[in-house]
Amino acid sequence: MNAPQPTAPTGLDGFRPGEVRGPVEQVDPYSAALEPFGGDPAAYARHHREAVLDEPVVLSVRNLEKSFKGLKAVDSISFDLHQGEVISIIGPNGSGKSTTINLISGFLAPDGGIIDVDDRSIAGLTVPDVAERGLSRTFQNGRVFGALTVDENIALGYHRKLEEQRPFRQLQRYPLLRWVNLLSETAVALVHGPKVRRERAAVDARVGIEVDRFRERLGSRRHDFAYTLSYANRRRTEIARAHIREPSLLLLDEPTAGMNQSETAEVLEQLQYLKAQGHTILLVEHKIELVTALSDRVIAMDGGRIIAQGDPDEVRQAPQVVEAYLGKRRELHVTRTRGQQDVLATQNAIEGAGAQDADEPEGTALLRLHDVNVHYGQVHALQDVSITIPQGAIVSLLGGNASGKSTTMKTILGLNRVTDGTIEYEGRDITGESTRARVVAGIAAVPEARRVFPRMSVEENLLSGAYTRTDRAGVEEDLERMYARFPRLAERRRQQAGTMSGGEQQMLAFARALMSRPKLICMDEPTMGLSPKLVEDVLEQIAALRDDLGISVLMVEQQAELALSIADYGYVLQNGRIRLHGPAGDLLHDPRVQEAYLGGAH
């Protein structure tokens, strides 16, 4: 069958500074790529997988090694990535995936081995020098500049390719001469001529093209500050920033972490567009369905080594991968629903009378929000929110992005000011109390994306959780208790927290919260970015907090079916209001929740 070969990246190539173009017509290159194959994605994937192997090698990795204080994070791995190829790296947390990405992108220096891009060595180069060789990347936890707008964040990705606005950019690499480049950039920013204005207009047009890839999500938010965006939109902004330079190699570290199924499908669609355009992509991702749909080849890692590589379906079914990555999964005690589809299409389904008619959760109330209102400037973020958390219970807080879940949690912790309503804890009003006072009283937090102190050791992180305590002997006792509960932390007590895997950092975040001897722990997306095996482990740890220690838990979780599987009670937020609440077992099968959050009921 004569089918088109993968082409070099198109779209922005040849769009030089100073050249201003009009509005770009929205084109679906992936659909166009499917046409010669009768619209069959599987046939196109097979052809693409075979064709790219004849293309030049963009990235060559040989015997790459990295250790952290004797722990081998990457152990002599080798692979090639061809032009136009998409390779995904999978594996359990701690397998070495993100360390590999960090080595390639220059954030870590390898202990040994070769990293070549277009036959030029980049091993050990600084991050700016690696970027100059044509590499762009995103990060596991998402990194945007909150005080900059969406457009400004995306435009930053093109900074290193500017010519007129950086007339002495070559001097940036020389420490003694960097000031010349900085002064010249400042002067150009204050007094700019026609060439600079044309270059700025060209960059603005490029930003418009990147925003247009996510037009339904970012199109109306271009001039909004990034800190006002939902988590998913911050990730979209980051992908656009990485892509605007038209890199020869795009490194994506869990680009859909924290996204629901519908948002994941949208990002998959965008990545398929890039693949059809001929972009070269190295992806780290836990969501196997996305990996299988997008990848030409898959590399599975465990313990810092490659344990399997090849066709996506073959790798995901390999026994050693099933054991290492998926683990021996066991079903939770509560039956799970099927599918999380068409979430955005039915996001507003939880409306109408009777939404709050269910009884309050049983048991003595530990914390109660009564008609709480919170504003962000003119935005009414929470509207008459009432929530009860009983002693020794797990309560799940559900809802789509920007529904008010994290705002509710921050309000409980005292990080947001209540404009109306009350918060009661153990029967007393704490509405006006500080965050410190609430921590001392027994309210702790496990924040989104874990937020450990990366340059501090594991033990220092744990001790920071007990900073409000004065009983030194009790702190030492609890420290040993944490090591007994989380043996992996005991093994790595002297290791810097930032060098650990996402799963290990989540363990550390749990243990740090427990060091304050809390009665209530607020958890924001505790399973975000974790492998399926570790998701099960985290849920078991959360259930143990309730069952073994009698600690109450308020849990915000994107994977709602998992959250409801271990919860006692649940609340569904929409646009800052509680639309539905009830026993978790009932909500798990309530079609209103399934339609609005989990997708259509089957």
From TrEMBL:
<feature type="domain" description="ABC transporter">
    <location>
        <begin position="59"/>
        <end position="328"/>
    </location>
</feature>
<dbReference type="InterPro" id="IPR027417">
    <property type="entry name" value="P-loop_NTPase"/>
</dbReference>
<dbReference type="Pfam" id="PF12399">
    <property type="entry name" value="BCA_ABC_TP_C"/>
</dbReference>
<dbReference type="Pfam" id="PF00005">
    <property type="entry name" value="ABC_tran"/>
</dbReference>
<dbReference type="InterPro" id="IPR052156">
    <property type="entry name" value="BCAA_Transport_ATP-bd_LivF"/>
</dbReference>
<keyword id="KW-0378">Hydrolase</keyword>
<dbReference type="InterPro" id="IPR032823">
    <property type="entry name" value="BCA_ABC_TP_C"/>
</dbReference>
<keyword id="KW-0547">Nucleotide-binding</keyword>
<comment type="similarity">
    <text>Belongs to the ABC transporter superfamily.</text>
</comment>
<keyword id="KW-0813">Transport</keyword>
<keyword id="KW-0067">ATP-binding</keyword>
<dbReference type="InterPro" id="IPR017871">
    <property type="entry name" value="ABC_transporter-like_CS"/>
</dbReference>
<dbReference type="GO" id="GO:0005524">
    <property type="term" value="F:ATP binding"/>
</dbReference>
<dbReference type="InterPro" id="IPR003439">
    <property type="entry name" value="ABC_transporter-like_ATP-bd"/>
</dbReference>
<dbReference type="GO" id="GO:0016887">
    <property type="term" value="F:ATP hydrolysis activity"/>
</dbReference>
<dbReference type="InterPro" id="IPR003593">
    <property type="entry name" value="AAA+_ATPase"/>
</dbReference>
<dbReference type="GO" id="GO:0015807">
    <property type="term" value="P:L-amino acid transport"/>
</dbReference>
<dbReference type="GO" id="GO:0015658">
    <property type="term" value="F:branched-chain amino acid transmembrane transporter activity"/>
</dbReference>
<protein>
    <submittedName>
        <fullName>ABC transporter</fullName>
        <ecNumber>3.6.3.17</ecNumber>
    </submittedName>
</protein>
<keyword id="KW-0029">Amino-acid transport</keyword>
<feature type="domain" description="ABC transporter">
    <location>
        <begin position="367"/>
        <end position="600"/>
    </location>
</feature>
